[in-house]
Write a structure and sequence with these properties.
151 residues, mainly alpha, 67% helix
Length: 151
């Protein structure tokens, strides 16, 4: 539970996104929540507190997030935590889910959210440039280095 709480804590600390990267955070969350859902077989919950580990973790994380983000309503928090379990097989969906959560947090504080899309924008620009460079004649012949010059 401590590992899960700390990972979710880092994911919800939107100041960490520029350092970690949204995709790296999503990948970590996928691994952690997949392990919590499928690989941890030891009963984590006290008797009568839940019927399985997933339910226990979901309830505990909802409680923790509600404590730290009191401006979010219960449905927003529940959907966020359920999404951690639902999207734990797809990094892209987890990334979008984490971004949505961070946007909710930032909007409440009136903060800018445009930096949450920088990683995808940079990859999109890189891909477009590579596609453009792949078209014969687009690059200036003097800008292209021959294999002989590189040696």
């Amino acid at each position: 539970m401590k590992i899960l709480e700390n990972v979710v804590g880092i994911a919800s600390d939107y100041n960490q996104v520029p350092f970690i990267g949204l995709t790296n955070m999503a990948e970590t969350l996928c691994i952690v929540f997949e392990a919590a859902e499928e690989q941890i077989t030891v009963q984590l919950y006290p008797a009568g507190k839940a019927s399985n580990n997933t339910e226990f973790i979901l309830n505990e994380l909802c409680f923790t997030l509600k404590k730290h983000f009191s401006h979010l309503n219960d449905n927003q928090i529940r959907i966020t935590v359920e999404g951690f379990f639902s999207f734990n097989k797809t990094i892209a969906k987890m990334r979008d889910h984490v971004r949505d959560f961070i946007v909710q947090i930032r909007q409440e504080n009136g903060e800018d959210t445009s930096d949450l899309y920088l990683e995808e924008k940079a990859k999109e620009i890189e891909k477009a440039q590579a596609e453009k460079n792949a078209i014969p004649g687009v690059l200036n012949p003097h800008a292209v280095k021959d294999d002989e010059e590189m040696q």
